[in-house]
Amino acid sequence: MKKESIYGLPLEQLIEWLQDHGQKKSRALRVWDWLYRKRVANFSEMTDVNSECLELLTDHFILQSLREHTSQESVDGTIKFLFKLPDDNLIETVLMRHKFGSSVCVTTQVGCNIGCSFCASGLLTKHRDLSGSEIVEQIMKVQEYMDNARQGEKVSHVVVMGIGEPFDNYINVMDALRIIIDHKGLAIPGRGITISTSGLADKISEFADSDLKVNLAISLHAPTNELREQIMKINRVYPLEKIIQAVEYYLAKTKRRITLEYILLKDLNDQREHALQLVSLIKNIQQLININLIPYNPVDEHPQYQRSDHETMLAFYDVLKKHGINCSIRLEHGRDIEAACGQLRSKQVKANQG
Ligand code: SF4
């Protein structure tokens, strides 16, 4: 019998499964507490759970399916982990330390089919979706690392911005978020979670209709269809009009702000005219929009893209500010390690192939 990871079960399903197997609800709550609050590495460590229940769990579930393959630590405390999945695929997960807490950037797919032309991950096409448990387990592994360091650190924020398009793996990502948010478990509040999409407009609308109250970010990266198609081929399927329409629906439905991510690429999308086009694109919704300007991290794979000069970034920022747009320039983490999304994995996969 193939065992499932126990991290794929939301609390209600764990209760139901254990009740179906003759166990009480109170025992399921204790198991949940051992999993997410006490964070054991083996079922046998659940000392107040009876042996019959432990046997059931051991026979049907596994606790640790991800193995740490390698990791890199930056001078600023950012750590990039490369985890090996049971089928030997590799995924990246990043821990970032901020003044406001510790944030984990999770991966949602092995590879990615969106094909953003500046992204190291996009070179390795999608092999498969991650399961909900594999998404939850990335956070558990990072928390385990912190627990072992014994400094009382706790994951306080999650960004779903690692390799993959989360809305192309919608159901598993939503399931994972429900487990991460559960107040009896990891209890990471929805306001501390951000999911980032490349702009799958129909899923943005579906997400607006869902009960999940987490932050939404959209990778915009260009203010016109012509330019966006050059760097994000997904724009042919979901052009800016469709995205803005879905954003308007989301804003009207949820009344929550949206962040638009904009990577500044030297001489390509970072000029004053682009800033003005961006202002015009969002003029009807700008009250509920934050723009996050992101300095580009050049990667060997895409020598055509370079980082904008500091002055150019500031000039772009000034144009947006002068038009009353809420915007910021993202602080960078881990510049001294393979920090751009997918770089460590892509290097490792190439080494394995070579
Ligand atoms: S930036 Fe994100 S969506 Fe685009 S190719 Fe890379 S991983 Fe995929």
Structure description:
- Residues 98-330 form the Radical SAM core domain.
- It is built from 11 helices and 14 strands.
- By secondary structure, it is an alpha/beta fold.
- The chain folds into 2 domains: 4-62, DNA polymerase, domain 1 (Orthogonal Bundle); 67-348, Alpha-Beta Barrel (TIM Barrel).
- α9 (272-281) runs parallel beside α10 (310-322).
- The radius of gyration is 21 Å and the shape is elongated.
- The model has no long low-confidence stretch (mean pLDDT 92).
- Bound molecules: iron/sulfur cluster.
- Terminal-residue CA separation: 35 Å
CATH class of the largest domain equals Alpha Beta
Mean pLDDT: 92
Number of domains: 2
Characterize this entry briefly.
The chain is of the alpha/beta class and 354 residues long. 36% of the residues lie in helices and 19% in strands. A hairpin with a 5-residue loop joins strand 3 and strand 4 (79-84).
